[in-house]
Amino acid sequence: MRRLAIVICGLLLSAAAALRAQDLPLVPQEVVIVPEVDVYGQEVLFAEGLLLNAGTTAYSGISLFAEAFDAADEVVGEGFGYLVNACNAALLPDVALLPGTTQRFAVPLELFEDGVTVERVEVTVTGDEMPDASAADEALATGITRIASGEVVSVEWIDGDNLRYGAGCHRDLFIDLIWTEYNLPSETSAAIEHPKAGLVTEALRRQLGLLEPLYFQHSALSYAPNARRLVYQTELNTMITAEPDGSFKRVLFDRLSDRTLQGITWLNEGRFLAYYYGAFGDTVTYFTANVDGQTLSEPARNSIPSLITPGAAPDGEDVIIAQEVDGTVGYYLKRAAFPTTELLFEAQAPGNNWPGPLYEQGADDADFIYAALPGDDGARLACFNRQTGTLSDLTTLPLGLASDERAWWSLAPDQEHIALYANGLHGGLWLIDLGALPEC
Question: How far is CA 147 from CA 103, 186, 421, in A?
Answer without folding.
Answer: 18, 12, 10
